[in-house]
Amino acid sequence: MATIPTVLYYLSLFIMVELDARKFGMVDVPIEHRQSVWQLTKEFGFHFLSLISIIVFMLLGYSPILSVFWATVVAYVVSFFHASCALRPQKLVTALEAGSVGVLNVAATCAAAGLIVGVVTLTGLGLKFSDIVIAYAGNSLLMTAILTSLVVWVVGLAVPVTASYIICAVIAAPALIKLGVPDYAAHMFIFYYAVLSEVSPPTALSPFAAAAITGGDPYKTTMQSWKYTLPAFLVPFMFVLDPAGQGILLKGSWEDIIVSSVTAMIGIAALAGGAQGWFLKKTNLLERLLLIVAGLALVYPHPLADGVGIGLIVAVVLMQKLRH
């Protein structure tokens, strides 16, 4: 069931990055070829031992924190396998300093977000979310889905994907199921948004980790990551709002699966063009609005909505072809 939604997620990333490259006029960057992947792996592959050791230590019964600690020790030991990587005293101090400074942003932000999650779970508010969401949504499936996605986003601020899904499966899934959404679609909706919480501000754990490694600004990195994944945020609505959209979960006939998947791909491309302000060329305000409306229409799995979406995309293409 996760196969097509996963493909759509990476398609969204690919199109957004490609449009950015075209928008900013980026050119191919020549990369000097010195060693093959096999040669590099043979020479520096020992670095992977510290990652593998985390799993080994956890299998041996160590806690996650202790596993990471001993994996760090392993990383220090194996660094001496190659002279250029050896963490001698001066290098070791520099590495420990960089690690300590790099973790400050992540630790402080996640601690603050943990307070929000703690309030939601420990006060018992989380257990009442289902009834509260339905009451505020007025039995509207669209509003219930939007509010449910916000609930998953808040809970996912400070916890990993698996924990976020487990919590929200209890407090949010019943709201969707009560309105007639199949249980597998409701749970996939929540799981998809739990995964997207990794790139959702203000505490996107993945961009924060990437910024710590590269030395970038964690908040700017998070916003850029969020921008690149925005079209993918609408994918879960496809298989929740209408039974026809469950084709992207490989449910129904092959015709439903193919039609819903293709229209979803076209819709994501349109949304990406609207979000980036670039399609075949730079878009004006009208073209940008038409692309966003077209993307939203194609995301809704209905023949009329699909026809409107395709028509708007064709209109934008003609406008850009005719405009000098």
Which band does the percent of strand residues land in? under 5%
**Termini Cα gap:** 45 Å
Shape: globular
> Average pLDDT across residues?
85
Number of strands: 0
Name the quaternary structure. Answer: single chain
Q: Count of helices?
A: 16
Order of helices and strands: HHHHHHHHHHHHHHHH
Specify Rg, calculated over alpha carbons: 23 Å
Range of helix content: over 70%
Structural class: mainly alpha
- Biggest pleated-sheet summary: none
Catalogue the unreliable spans.
Answer: none
SSE order and pairing:
Elements: H1 3-23, H2 37-44, H3 48-59, H4 64-78, H5 89-122, H6 129-137, H7 141-155, H8 161-171, H9 173-178, H10 183-196, H11 205-214, H12 218-229, H13 235-241, H14 254-276, H15 285-299, H16 303-322
Concise account of the structure shown:
α8 (161-171) packs across α10 (183-196), α14 (254-276) runs antiparallel to α15 (285-299) and α15 packs antiparallel against α16.
How would you describe what is shown here?
The protein has 324 residues and is mainly α. 72% of the residues lie in helices and 0% in strands. The chain is globular. The mean pLDDT is 85.
Give the key terms.
about 325 residues, mainly alpha, about 70% helix, about 0% strand, globular
